[in-house]
């Protein structure tokens, strides 16, 4: 059982509620057997969750746009649509710029890819089914900061 504080049960007044919206909430509460407060709480919760989700998607689109611009200017190299690839420290350094790994089924970061190399040369890892981090001294949380839509990370 949860203990409610005395303030939780006090009525809350919200000014400026549209009368038509209130009437619709009242009708819905009668249909569902819920209180008007429960209906309003559900509606606000759903709205706020949708807005949070939308903000995340907008941020993701913004990131992809910036990556596209950087790629167009030659600041990034994109490696994409590959079944499996293993990269070494030397291979990353030989490019001389950051890399985006996108749509790779299995990406293996070699044992010699240390934290410094990873942070300097790997911009992002997107839509990878399995990411293998062979260097145990490369923290997974450091790697995860550059990952989006990665299904599995292993050693």
Number of domains: 2
Strand content: 25-35%
Strand line-up of the largest beta sheet: 1-2-3-4
Radius of gyration: 24 Å
Mean pLDDT: 87
* General shape: elongated
The helix-and-strand class reads alpha/beta
The helicity comes to: 40-55%
Please give the alpha-carbon distance between the first and last residues.
43 Å
Poorly predicted segments: none
Reading the helices and strands in chain order gives HHEHEHEHE
Main sheet overview: 4 strands, parallel
Tell me the total number of β-strands. 4
Number of helices: 5
What does this structure look like?
With 155 residues, the protein is of the alpha/beta class. The chain is built from five helices and four strands; from the N terminus they run ααβαβαβαβ. Strands 1-2-3-4 form a four-stranded parallel beta sheet. Strand 2, helix 4 (115-121) and strand 3 form a beta-alpha-beta unit. Helix 1 (19-32) crosses helix 2. 12% of the residues are buried.
Write the layout of secondary structure elements.
Elements: H1 19-32, H2 36-72, E1 76-87, H3 89-95, E2 98-109, H4 115-121, E3 122-133, H5 140-144, E4 147-154
Parallel strand pairs: 1-2, 2-3, 3-4
Please name the defining characteristics of this protein.
single chain, 155 residues, alpha/beta, 2 domains, four-stranded parallel β-sheet, 4 strands, elongated
Provide a brief overview of the structure.
With 155 residues, this protein is α/β, with parallel strands linked by helices. It contains five helices and four strands. The protein folds into two domains: 18-74, no CATH class; 75-154, no CATH class.
């Amino acid at each position: 059982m949860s203990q409610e504080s005395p303030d939780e049960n006090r009525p809350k007044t919200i000014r400026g509620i549209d009368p038509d919206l209130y009437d619709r909430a009242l009708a819905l509460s009668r249909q569902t057997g819920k209180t008007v407060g429960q209906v309003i709480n559900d509606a606000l919760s759903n709205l706020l969750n949708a807005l949070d989700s939308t903000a995340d998607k907008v941020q993701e689109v913004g990131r992809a746009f910036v990556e596209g611009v950087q790629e167009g200017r030659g600041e990034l190299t994109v490696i994409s649509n590959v079944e499996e690839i293993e990269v070494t420290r030397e291979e990353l350094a030989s490019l001389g710029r950051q890399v985006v790994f996108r749509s790779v089924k299995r990406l293996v970061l070699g044992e010699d890819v240390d934290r410094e190399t990873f942070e300097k040369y790997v911009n992002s890892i997107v839509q990878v089914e399995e990411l293998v981090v062979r260097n145990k001294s490369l923290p997974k949380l450091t790697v995860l900061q550059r990952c989006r839509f990665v299904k599995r990370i292993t050693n």
